[in-house]
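Marked as duplicate of an earlier ticket. Keeping the data here for the record.
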Amino acid sequence: MRSTYLGLLVLGAITTLSGCAKLDGRVTAGGTLNSQGGDGKAVFTAHAARCDGEISGRVNYQDKTAIDWQQMGGVAFNAQVYGAGLCSEDPVPPEGAEAEDETLYCKQDICTEGMFQVEFDYNSTNPAAPGEGSGFACMMDIGEGVKSGFGANGILNVMLLESGPYQGYHNAGTMGGNVQVHDCPSSDDDA
């Protein structure tokens, strides 16, 4: 299973310079999903926004029974968001944008149209695995519970840690909690 997501990491690196444009929006997510390879549950929360070009937000995560990290107490981190946006069908780069600015587009074939992508720099909160790294997550708002047809309120399509003490860690699945995508608040300049 680890090799599958290492392949995903390579795919992400290959497609980094292409993908769909990010639109302004906000996401709030919180809940549990199955541990990555362990017996327990993982806890994921995210609050991120891209509004009028301003990016903000935080991600928190804990998976105490994560396989490959279980002996050291699992994966646990707090993170600061540096990239966020709702993935659109529009190609990148938008007119006048620089293709090298990866905060402007979603990772093609990983975070697709309708998903909200968040990139973050994390700090491990597990004393047995100190350090910093980076990662990204793609999530989808699928409606309200049973009405969604999936019996869940949100999907964490993928979360992949690309560097640091948890490099290669990944998780995905339906969330027992919620993912909600919102419009940005209207600014005073909007007519």
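See parent ticket for discussion. Residues 20-97+112-164 form one domain.
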